Amino acid sequence: MKNYNRMPENFLWGGATAANQYEGGWNEGGKGLSIADILTGGSVNKERRLTPPEPLPEEFYPNHEATDFYHCWKEDIALFAEMGFKIYRFSISWSRIFPKGDEETPNEEGLKFYDDVIDELRKYGIEPLVTISHYENPLHLSLEYGGWKNRKLIDFYLRFARVLFERYKGKVKYWLTFNEINMLTQPFGAVFCAGMLDSEDVCLQSRYQAMHHQLVASALAVSMAHKIDNENKLGCMLAYHNGYAYTCHPEDVFYAQRFGQIHNSIAGDVHVRGYYPGFAARFFEENEIELEIEPEDAGILKNGTVDFVSISYYSSNCVSVVKEGELTAANGGENIKNPYLETSAWGWQIDAVGLRYVLNQIYDRYQIPIMIVENGLGAVDELTEDGKIHDEYRIEYMRKHIEQMKEAIHDGVELVGYTCWGCTDLVSASTGELKKRYGLIYVDKNDDGTGNFARIRKDSFYWYKRVIDSCGEKL
């Protein structure tokens, strides 16, 4: 008889990073410029700025060095193994493989770097989970083609994906086609997700057209990967927007439902079911969105559905028709403050029970395996005089979320993996700061450029090791 009080023994515990926030080596190994390489540092009170067509000498670009995985990969992977990782999610920088994005021939030096990373992971028995495109489109594709609003990017992406599928056949089993593809429902996604630099491209028309092209590219990549190696498992990745109705007024309740449909289910349904949901037609009509859809797209989407769903989940927020109430920060979406929740130092509301709610919602809708591939707490960590970081607040955050994961599994959700975000410190995507730390491993690098990149185990490092060793029993 199944023991519902225990996590599955084959559960995939691990951590997650992204090349543009962690890797560094921005102009080494034949790498070309990406969107991230022209994005300045920022803070809560200072927006990050784009400086195309190249970086400016007087500006600070935290992604250029990030926290230097490019030179420290062997040390970092050894630390992941020490924690007991079963899986490690990372992205492959498109502009490290195709510096401009539209070349015919890949950069062998870039491929060799990832050869070494993947082989080192496999040496320790850590399963690679590779995100093909994670917020760093090659800059040339933006300047020359206008980013993902241009259908030509589908072919460039597929060339990149084919190189990866063929190069790492038998070494990489789990793949994610695009990171947080549904962020294109937000203005944030125009640059980060789609590499669209024109200020006019934050409009709904451009963003949803770009998302359609990415959904077609994803479906074609899924079909390609399955043909190259039938052991491949392809997933979509959604930034899950959990918006509660701010009041019990029926209009607020319906608005919350529609909020979730638009921000989560349009992209999710196409990925998993292979077609746009019924409510999308009305949404497009009412917002004067006219997608350019080719006759063959319907078949492509139907035949390229994913094998699993993956999500990022950090917080929840409230939504309302009247939009009254105190505002707080949110990872995309609307942001009316929930009076029943605590907030992080960056204003994100902490809602562990919301994770259980979300997991049940996704599984009820799709009935395929789910991975949580981003979850964590951004905070200011203080290094003590004896060189330690006592981050009980991060442990408490993760403990509560893992408890709710266990409850969701007991509910019947097929949850197969959890990779906490920023298993080492890295650059925050939302603010461009290094002081907003997520890692279980401290990296000595600061927003003023100081630091020697030394790695230090935080208290959360040792706690997570116990969690993995006990398969979630010792929290």
TrEMBL record:
Keywords: Glycosidase, Hydrolase. InterPro entries: GH, GH_1_N_CS, Glyco_hydro_1. The keyword Ubl conjugation does not apply. GO terms for molecular function: 6-phospho-beta-glucosidase activity. It comes from the Bacteria. Its EC number is 3.2.1.86. The keyword Hydrolase applies. Transmembrane segments: none annotated. Pfam families: Glyco_hydro_1. It is an enzyme of class 3 (hydrolase). Belongs to the glycosyl hydrolase 1 family. This is 6-phospho-beta-glucosidase. It comes from Blautia caecimuris.
